[in-house]
Amino acid sequence: MKRIAIFPGSFDPFTKGHEDIVLRGLKIVDEIVIGIGYNSQKQNRYFDISYMEEKIKETFAHVPQVSVVVYNELTASLASKIGASVILRGLRNTTDFEYENSISQVNRYLNTELESIFLITSPELAAVNSSIIREVHRYGGDVQKYLPYTL
Asked: Where do the annotations place ATP binding (predicted)?
């Protein structure tokens, strides 16, 4: 039986840290669906969601085990629809763990067949986060070294 994981996030933007988690996750599962979700906590996206979908697909064009979907529903519901038994998440620090642990518990309540797998971010990528990249880009700074695609 094929083991499918969903890697959910707003990915605004998708970074080399995210790419690292996906590629390492493929050592654990057979297929990863990157789910670009609408985050109700974020009013406006910096990068258009369809643009980010295109860039992520471009990044993994050579990796047939990775696909991309845009969704606007609970992650646990999407996981059920696509046959995913795993939610894949990356952790940079203990703050990330506290946040992700709470979400994991709710997802498990919503879908008892769903397990969360947490991968620790590679040390050289731990300082990279989408908020910082957006801010640097907004003020004309070069963010290319943090992204696996060309803006």
From this structure: 10-11, 18, 90-92, 100, 125-131
pLDDT tens digit sequence for 68-108: 999 999 999 999 999 999 999 999 999 889 999 999 999 99
Binding residue ranges: 10-11, 18, 42, 75, 89-92, 100, 125-131
User: Active-site residue 104, yes or no?
Assistant: no
Non-local CB neighbours of 96 within 8 Å, separated by 6+ positions: 90
In which domain, by residue range, is 27 found?
4-141
Q: What is the pLDDT of residues 108-145, one digit of tens each?
A: 999 888 999 999 999 999 888 999 999 999 999 999 99
Is residue 16 among the annotated active site residues? no
Q: What CATH number is given to the structural domain containing 51?
A: 3.40.50.620
What's 144's DSSP letter?
G
Verify whether residue 42 is a known catalytic residue.
yes
